[in-house]
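[SOLVED] Need 3D model of a two-part complex

Original post:
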Amino acid sequence: MIEKLIKGIQRTGAPIVVGLDPMLSYIPEHITRKAFSEYGETLEGAGEAIWQYNKGIVDAVCDLVPAVKPQIAMYEQFGIEGLKVFARTVAYCKEKGLVVIGDVKRGDIGSTSEAYAVGHLGKVQVGSDFYYGFDEDFATVNPYLGSDGIKPFIKVCKEEKKGLFILVKTSNPSSGEFQDRLIDGRPLYELVGEQVAKWGEELMGDTYSYIGAVVGATYPEMGKVLREIMPKSFILVPGYGAQGGKGVDLVHFFNKDGLGAIVNSSRGIIAAYKQEKYAAFGSENYADASRQAVLDMREDIASALAGR
Amino acid sequence: MIEKLIKGIQRTGAPIVVGLDPMLSYIPEHITRKAFSEYGETLEGAGEAIWQYNKGIVDAVCDLVPAVKPQIAMYEQFGIEGLKVFARTVAYCKEKGLVVIGDVKRGDIGSTSEAYAVGHLGKVQVGSDFYYGFDEDFATVNPYLGSDGIKPFIKVCKEEKKGLFILVKTSNPSSGEFQDRLIDGRPLYELVGEQVAKWGEELMGDTYSYIGAVVGATYPEMGKVLREIMPKSFILVPGYGAQGGKGVDLVHFFNKDGLGAIVNSSRGIIAAYKQEKYAAFGSENYADASRQAVLDMREDIASALAGR
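Solution:
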């Protein structure tokens, strides 16, 4: 799956992942009105609105980017109806040829971690049959529980040729509370990064590992260090755009081959029509605004990389 | 909700939470056979088997314990059908008067963490209506992302009078990889414990906080230290029984008032009939074996506490 991601980046020239993190407040009124008129102001109605909104965006950007990253929390808040739309979105994006990174940040131990891995990346056995649950291509995973939490995921990744992005240094302001604490003079996130590199050796693709890391765009200097520590790991970089990360901040996350990083933007793309810059599109044409935001982001990253 | 938990512990004399972590391999054949004959060897069939199995155990133990802890991974592996059974199990346990701790180990930042909190503990707004998603009473949360990940949960807990158990020192062998690393001479888990105590001050019940911690029974000496660091926090203690923790290991997790800890057992109770000790019950009477295992665990803890 890492090969598919790399080919997608090379084909599109866009090391970009579109974060499908819908909030009802992002969805244009004509979509919610129609959904509520069919299903009422219910969980089903919310689900239908989210689905139509996602579909519009995916249709508008799927030729421009290699990957999408649906954030499961935004679906899970609507209970079962929301999770149905998560599953439907994953399946639709895969039909469209996109790599799907399930932003699930799961993490537990032993057979429990394996159950998450099975549910999101693998297949579960029922009697003599096997079924895929949510069937994403990659999943994000939390490392706080150590190797007991990660190895069961790696086992399933090996079987399914799928991958992980493990949280190393997250993009939020308080990520330093624990992640930056010094251990033998080095921050915790560096030790986690070293482990990611080690775990990654167990599951190598041609040039990069199937096991990547999450490092926030908001911490470019730390990204530089982590790039060195995990040379074979792809870095999934959140925090571009709405959270404050800029193109120039991103160059450190890439290797000299121009690969090794994929930058996420969620609100900045999916709710682009709400920004002054793209307001002329109007809410009816929200998906065209998203497309333009992807083109602009591609340009921003390309010029930053060209200028390094 | 912390008051309901405390009253339940006092009423039953059992600081015990039953971990509803079903694996298909635990379920007696007469249950799976019936479920598969109705629904086939499908995800629905697996869901029906899990539901009947859970219901049997809950009916058999609900007067003996204050709380249950369904582990969502074990349901999530079956996709939507599994999660329907998770929701059904939560609702059924609440009907039976049990406190439900959703072992979801979620954790993200800002609006994403809030979405998880809303989905598991609160209610989501759709138009002018509000709906509960999974509606557990407590949720387990991962602290790796710092306060940005925890505060949105606390906000929802305040609104709903619900609570959290935050991972501090987990029960697994590799939990020390990151959690035990020394920072200024003290292990990371102590710093996390201090934060739990601080977060807990924001949401106090009469004597204990709504914000508790997870500390594994397999690390009793660390439990002793953490008990001091977080005097007002309930400690959810996994790792008893199947993972190796014993009654005598548990005394340090309790305060002098005999409260402050609630001990989880999953496999040791729900699959008790598979142990030699309870084999005489037979698989048809698996729920009676679970009941006996709860009684034995209650006795083990009581005598350890009496002997301290």
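Edit: Chain A touches chain B through 73 residues (CB under 8 Å).
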